[in-house]
Amino acid sequence: MLRISIIDKTKLKSNNYWLMALVSKMPALKVLKLHKPLGGKSLSKDGYKFLQKGLNYMKENGRSLSKISFHQMLGPESSEYLYPCLKLHEEL
């Protein structure tokens, strides 16, 4: 299980690339929990883009998640970006 607290991307040189790298490089990953810390930021459009790439790499390598959790992160604009991330992982 990987639990990730979303961080302010402006403090990172590579924006949300770290999210794709973590998700795609962990071969035993089955459960992903993303959460927004108190007073923190939600996952941005850029973050969803890198999450989608990481999940796509997982699927291409024959791996998939059994569970994904978003805590205090979903807003009105999130569903537009969330669906492309999850559509290849029908077993969720």
- N-to-C CA distance: 15 Å
Biggest beta-sheet profile: 3 strands, parallel
Q: What is the number of domains?
A: 1
Strand order of the largest sheet: 1-2-3
The number of helical runs is 3
SS-based structural class? Answer: alpha/beta
How do the SSEs run, as a string of H and E? Answer: EHEHEH
User: What is the mean predicted local confidence, pLDDT?
Assistant: 78
Q: Total strand count, please?
A: 3
Proportion in helices: 25-40%
| Low-pLDDT ranges | none
Shape: globular
Content of β-strand: 15-25%
Rg on CA atoms, Å: 12 Å
Task: Describe the 3D structure.
- This protein is of the alpha/beta class.
- The protein has one domain.
- Helix content is 37%, strand content 15%.
- Strands 1-2-3 form a three-stranded parallel beta sheet, with no helix packed on it.
- Strand 2 (31-35), helix 2 (45-60) and strand 3 form a beta-alpha-beta unit.
